[in-house]
Amino acid sequence: MADAKLRKYLDMNVRAVKKELERIGSELTPEQVVTFAKKNDTDLHDCFTWDNHEASRAWRLEEAREVLRSMIREVVIKAPNGSPRAIKARAYEEISLTDSRARAYVPFLVARTSPELI
Q1: Which string of DSSP letters, residue by residue, matches 75-95?
Q2: pLDDT tens for residues 75-84?
């Protein structure tokens, strides 16, 4: 799915899309852009997923990423003077899986202590 999304943006006519965005106005809202893009004969139309089943799944995946990115935990580190210091860090770090182009999230301490991830 990520490859299809990337291909969609690489294939778009950037100049035509820019002109369409300028036609919409100088202060754009996402709602205005989507409304304009609903027209099949626009270049912006191809920038969106119009299949509602596919779009809803993609949105839920984005929401899951946001949940993982927003989880915070307190980690104790050694300050420059040697004393312990508590800092806030993400509970999960995003990594590239070595056996594919996929991405995954692992607990902070796993990401920071696994030699293959450092």
Answers
A1: EEEE-TTS-EEEEEEESEEEE
A2: 898 999 999 9
